[in-house]
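Morning!

This is the sequence you dropped in the shared folder:
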Amino acid sequence: MKVLIIDDELDICYLLSGILKQQSFSTRYVTSLSDAEIALKNDPPSIIFLDNHLPDGLGIDFIRFIKSKYPVSKIIMITAHDSPAEHKRAYAEGADVFIPKPFTKEKIYSAINKITA
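The structure's back. Tokens below.
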């Protein structure tokens, strides 16, 4: 299963990639929404880990684009900005799971199990 990580923090990209590779996921990452558009077009993933605060915009505003062009891709929102309003808006836009940072390996596996079950 292919996973795309969209996060401007390289350490998060490396950490998530390592966690996911332990479960035999094929991962790649980008650090901006513009690079995400290209990556999605070239090779749509099954799962997208999406940060909210990126250099060229908000991930939460990008959810609708993803869902309109790649409706079968599941979106796991990962952000340090963990407020009830953020949760509500992310789900309203179409996110499948919301995970606050910092996260644990168990939370990542639980989110994947939830969307692949």
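Headline: The chain has five helices and seven strands.

More detail when I'm at my desk.
O.
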